Amino acid sequence: MDIPSKYSAKSAERKWYDYWMTHNYFHSKPDDREPYTIVIPPPNVTGILHMGHMLNNTIQDVLIRRARLLGKNACWVPGTDHASIATEAKVVARLKEKGINKNDLTRDEFLAHAWEWTEEYGGVILEQLKKLGCSCDWERTKFTMDPDMSEAVIKVFVDLYNKGLIYRGYRMVNWDPEAKTTLSDEEVIHVEQQGLLFYLKYQIENSNDTLVIATTRPETIFGDTAICINPDDERFEHLRGKNAIVPICGRVIPIIEDAYVDVEFGTGCLKVTPAHDENDKVLGDRHHLEVIDIFNDDATLNSFGMHYEGQDRFVVRTKITKELEAAGQLLKTETYINKVGTSERTKAVIEPRLSDQWFLKMEDLAKPAIDAVLKTGEVKLFPKKFENTYRHWMENIRDWNISRQLLWGQQIPAYFYGDGKEDFVVAESAKEALKLAKIKTNNQDLTAKSLKQDTDALDTWFSSWLWPISVFNGIRNPENEDIKYYYPTNDLVTGPDILFFWVARMIVAGYEYKNQRPFENVYLTGLVRDKQRRKMSKSLGNSPDALKLIEEYTADGVRVGLLLSSAAGNDLMFDEALCQQGKGFGNKIWNAFQLTTLWEVKDIQQPNSSKIALEWYDSKFQTILVEIEDHFSKYRLSDALMSIYKLIYDDFCGWLLEMVKPAYQQPIDTVTYTKLMTIFEDNLKIIHPFMPFLTEDIWHYIKKRSPEEALIVSTWPKAKSINSALISEFDFASEVISGLRNIRKQKNIAFKDAIKCSVVNRENVATTFDEVISKLAHLETFDYVTNPVEGALTFRVKSNEYFIPMEGSIDVEAEIQKLTEELNYTEGFLKSVQKKLANERFVAGAPEQVVTSEKNKEADALAKIETLKSSLASLQ
Hints:
- The protein is of the alpha/beta class.
- Among the domains are: 181-351, Isoleucyl-tRNA Synthetase, domain 2 (Alpha-Beta Complex), CATH 3.90.740.10; 546-722, Isoleucyl-tRNA Synthetase, Domain 1 (Orthogonal Bundle), CATH 1.10.730; 726-805, hypothetical protein PF0899 fold (2-Layer Sandwich); 812-875, Helix Hairpins, CATH 1.10.287.
- The chain is built from 27 helices and 31 strands.
- Strand 10 and strand 11 form a beta hairpin.
- Helix 19 (608-633) runs parallel beside helix 21.
- The model has no long low-confidence stretch (mean pLDDT 92).
């Protein structure tokens, strides 16, 4: 077949991905093989491929492709997450562009638009993963809003409710005023910000006395329902039992006493706003205070805000500060650093808000998941350091707020039949709900119209926590063939930022619904950062276009570039030069293959140098095979790749091909060539998981193969015995070859000119590689002598001394002149160093390391002078 001189990545990537898909290599069905299963961390349906996805999915593809080569039934389940907050925001924005207000639509009308958007954009990221070479079982693609997936979520909600683990409660929640929904504690990021502490003066009722409070949020005074002092604070004895007047609004509020107040903070007087602070709510409940909610759902002030009604909270903060100052009620401001809760999704500042929400009791559910990671080791985290983070989260777990004020998502299956807080039933369908409602109310006249389903949707994570089970239909049909064969899965690859959001919750669900771990190993990747250590993001503009990278550096090049410096749990400092290195490595492999195609193969005698070279590489390969097996077992994929990289780049391309290469215009023997191509194929097998396109391309160029013989479904190399002595002998021989080549280079001896060499073999090195040394250094003779050779160039490898006669090899006069100049320079340098060391003030005053450095320079110069004099003496 015609083999192109240059590798065309674009055509190869298109050709071989289509080939793999056509022959269904990615699809898995239960059989008698050992299963190897990975479920993809489902990217948001709103998403496009970014660097984090590239890293995460490359790692998964490496693991899945290697599992295939190991003969396992590899199944990688892809899919996407409906991402309720992010997707709803996208749909709302699109509707706004069309002049449509979300609030003017019914739920069904809005969902029709959401599904339309999802069908248009939802599969983009999965298609992009194909460009990267991801070998997912696309026939198993799942979406968290698929009907069967949603049914599983609803079934679990009902089950947990019936077990008494889900309840409805009026609680202080984290409110996202941009998404207009509640968030769980874990979805709130606390960002340190510099703000102001405002000192406000409150009048005491029926008195000229005043008190001062310090607050970071003056706009919330409209929700004040008390001032609190510490009962042990003698400064405020005169305030006990009195009332204060809230500035601007004039509301009279009681002054209460509670040990909660920190006498050291601020002024010692605390304004209490039960509707807008969790701790204030606790105080309010304890003292039976009024609760006044001053905010609308978009964080504008409501009618309690008086003349600020309808204005944003931060705008009001600026305006009310001026009003208070003008009224003499703002005494001063101070710079204040505090942590502000922000939405993980929208980045909006969170507003604490009282609301009826659904919660899942987590304390008992978490116990098996804590034991699995921290006690029994059934689930292992890589790297292990993340166990501490896991412990902290899980041992301090709080009830999970699972309801969201959104339309996009699984609607909560609670059906209300009255106005009371307990006037509802929970059921998988409206039909079943009606039956339960009739029983609960003892009213057989109830109709479907009598019931109203809760308008809230479930938290997206409440669907994705079931992912390893639900993708195999394990909730709806717990005994089906797929769940029994593929579950528990093997490896999970994800980022540490969702260790609690997703990983921990999946472990909880696994033990609750399968009484088994969902996966055995969790490989936690680092974050992809730029060279300045900044996290890559669209907002910073430092994240390269993933598809453009693939176009410029090839999919294989990008995969290698990402993995070369991506140790588990450590952030990757991304540099496009790494992708260029990966592309260059691909070219190196292609050129090595090209070289083998240029040789004429004949049935001639195999040179001993080729025979021993092939035996050496066999053992070297086996050594690296053991090494990479160890790296894979510890999820050190970067180290595994580097070991393979060095093997192929240095040992195969740099040494073996040179050792077996026939002389110019001479043929190579059949035995050597056949063995060399077998070795090449083994090289392709171990690098294939990292560079699938290039390797498959070369594999089919080596010889024509049937679909059953494709590289993707070939066999991982088998372990064989290792001749360690041979490896050691070659390591020594390679130093000899390098020494001889250096002399050729230094003395400008053309490689076409054969040179003689003698050696005093004090190390008693075996003669195994003598013919290889002679070939690669182009020696006329290679003799063993007992005494040093006079008048020859020399170098050492350990205690062995090698001599190259000068006669006929070099221009003696030119060499004497060169060595004399170098000797003169070195002697001059030595004088300057010794002069410095003779200066007592320098030696006494300079740092110890500086003095040591100068002494080292002196020793090096003395040694070099001795060598140069010896070389000159041998020439004269």
